[in-house]
Design goal:
Strand order of the largest sheet: 2-3-8-7-6
Number of helices: 6
Radius of gyration: 23 Å
Oligomer: single chain
Structural class: alpha+beta
Distance between the termini: 26 Å
Length: 252
């Protein structure tokens, strides 16, 4: 279950207004919400790596519902999916999805125009190594052991950010890429009431995509930045201490 953005915003406003410490506008809140969600999401990977070392030394708690490594993996499941790549000629396969890619997982090349049909895990290398390996007769890749490298290409029509290209050798008939996508930017949207007040609009808003267990870290993280905006060091300190205590408790 995702975190409801209106619950977070109303809680942040309540805490700020309780002591008459200030007010944060929807635009400011949305900017901070994107930043804090991104910080929490990116922390999953170093945290997971640290907890995985405990798994390897059999020092982690493997009791059901109390294995922190499995908990992080569970939080990432909604962001893991096979993303579409289409063949664009000499440049290879271009990403054609509408989500921002965060990490690439297994790259599977499928060869159906030659017998026998083969689906192979594709080794990702640098462009420099790709050139060396494909030129060598001893290390030249095959349908069973293909290699690839990634690059970016700007769309000249829209001048948008480069979309990912994957060049594979030997060239497959299709490509399947398991990816971690970045969470969508959260956004608290509103309509204006007859008195000029902001009225929450659920259809126009975008909730946080993080697991419901992240609601408190989201609130504390946003409050920390709110303290900086309204120049209240007490809010920054209280929010930072609370977040740090929770992080130490999780990793200990």
């Amino acid at each position: 279950m995702a975190v409801n953005i209106n619950s977070v915003y109303t809680t942040v406003l309540y805490i700020l207004n309780k002591e008459q410490r200030g007010y944060i506008t929807p635009a400011e809140f949305n900017s901070l919400a994107v930043q804090v969600q991104d910080e929490i999401f990116q922390a999953y990977f170093p945290d997971g790596n640290q907890l995985n070392r405990k798994n390897q030394t059999n020092s982690d708690n493997d009791t059901e519902f109390f294995n922190m490594f499995k908990d992080i993996a569970y939080k990432l499941y909604p962001f893991e999916s096979d993303q579409p790549f289409i063949f664009v000629g000499a440049n290879g396969f271009q990403y054609s999805g509408n989500r921002e890619l965060f990490k690439l997982g297994d790259i599977m090349s499928t060869y159906t125009s030659t017998a026998p049909n083969v689906e192979s895990v594709t080794q990702l290398t640098s462009k420099k190594d790709y050139a060396k390996i494909t030129r060598s007769k001893l290390t030249k890749p095959s349908n069973s052991y293909p290699i690839c490298y990634t690059s970016g290409a700007y769309d000249p029509a829209t001048l948008e950010s480069p979309s990912l290209l994957i060049k594979v050798f030997p060239e497959p008939d299709s490509l399947t890429v398991n990816c971690i996508v970045a969470p969508l930017p959260p956004s608290w949207r509103f309509t204006v009431g007859v008195l000029g007040q902001y009225i929450y609009s659920e259809p126009l808003s975008t909730n946080f995509e993080l697991d419901i267990s992240e609601q408190t870290p989201l609130i504390m993280g946003i409050l920390k930045y709110c303290g900086i905006i309204i120049r209240d060091p007490e809010i920054v300190q209280a929010a930072s201490q609370s977040a740090q205590k929770a992080e130490i408790n999780e990793k200990s």
